[in-house]
Design a protein that fits this description.
120 residues, seven-stranded mixed sheet, 11 strands, globular
C-alpha cells in the first residue's frame, strides 16, 4: 500500500516561497498510471486542488494558482515537491499530498497533511 508523508516549514513569511516535500513509500513515483497531487484546505473552506505531476513527469496546475505554483520530483529519493511563490496569509492551509492510481475504480492514497501558516 502506498504511503505518503508531507514535510516542510510550518511557518512562512508573506512574499516568501512555500516549499513542501512528499515522501512516498510502498510504491514508485515513476510507476505507470500513478499521479501525484498537491491539495490544500484553508481554514473553514473546502479542499482546493493545486496541481499534479504524473508518473512520466508531466505537470498540470490549477489555473488560479498556475502563475505561482511549481511541482517537481526527485526520483532517486521517491519524492515530489511543491513550491508556491509570493505567499500571502490567504495561503494559510493544511497541505496534503495525494496519490491516485488509475483503474476501475481509481484508488486514492492521502498523506496526513501538514499545517502551513503564512504570517510575519
Amino acid at each position: 500500500q502506498v504511503q505518503l508523508q508531507e514535510s516542510g516549514p510550518g511557518l512562512v513569511k508573506p512574499s516568501q516561497t512555500l516549499s513542501l516535500t512528499c515522501t512516498v513509500s510502498g510504491g514508485s513515483i515513476t510507476t505507470s498510471y500513478y499521479a501525484w497531487s498537491w491539495i490544500r484546505q484553508p481554514p473553514g473552506k473546502g479542499l482546493e486542488w493545486m496541481g499534479v505531476i504524473a508518473y512520466d513527469g508531466s505537470t498540470y496546475y490549477s489555473p488560479s494558482l498556475k502563475s505561482r505554483t511549481s511541482i517537481s520530483r526527485d526520483t532517486s529519493k521517491n519524492q515530489f515537491s511543491l513550491q508556491l511563490s509570493s505567499v500571502t496569509p490567504e495561503d494559510t492551509a493544511v497541505y496534503y499530498c495525494k496519490a491516485r492510481v488509475a483503474g476501475d475504480p481509481d484508488v486514492d492514497y492521502w498523506g496526513q497533511g501538514t499545517q502551513v501558516t503564512v504570517s510575519s
